[in-house]
Write a structure and sequence with these properties.
Length: about 220
Amino acid sequence: MLVTVFESSTLKAKEYYLYRTIGDKQHIKELKEDIKNAKKQKHDKEIKDKLSRVAVGKYIYNLHGNASLYNYIKRHARKNKMSISDFIASYGYIYKSARKDAAIINKDDIWNLRKQGLTYVEIAKKLGSNPTTISEMCNKYFGGDPLIPRPIEDYITVQELMNIYRVDHKTIMKIVRENGFENHTTIRFRYLKKSEIEPALKEYVSTNKHHKFMVQRYAN
C-alpha cells in the first residue's frame, strides 16, 4: 500500500517519513488514512474487474450460475450491509437475477414473442430480462421451446428421419418445400409432421434409382 500511496517513489516515502511523520501525530493519522484509501481503491478495482469480466453491457446476469463469483460478491455485499443488487449497482452495473425476473415477466408475453419468431436473446432485450431467464421460464411453463409443435409425438426431427431412411438433409427439405409440408424450426431442432413426411420419404426411397444405387453400393 505504501508503494501505491507514494506513487512507487521510495524517495518520496523516505522524505515523508523522515521529515513529516516522525513525532507528528497528525501526519501519522493522515498517512494511515491514505493507506486505508489506497487499500479501498485496490479492493474496488479488483471487484470492478471481476464484474466487468461477466458483464453484458451494463448488466450482470444470473450470478447463481457462477458459484465462486456469486459467493465473493455476496460476502462483500454483506460486509457492506448491502443487498447484492445495490452492491453491484455501486460499481455501475445492473444486476438481473433469473429468480427476480421470473416473478415479473408474463409467460404469455414470452409465448407470443417466440411464436413471432424472436430468439431468446431478442425476447430478453424486449422484456428487460436475460436469455437464461427466458429459457428457464419456457422449460417451466411450456416444457421447452414454444416453437416445438404439439403434441410432440406427432412430429419427428430431420436427424431422426436421416437415421431411419438414410436420406440426406437437403433431400428431406426439398421434399418438404415441394409439398408444402409443416416445418417447425426451434432453438435446437427442426420438426416435421410424421403423417406428411414419412409417407413421402417411403415413396422416395422405394422409387428413387440413385438412392437405391447408393444404398446397394455401400451395403457391399
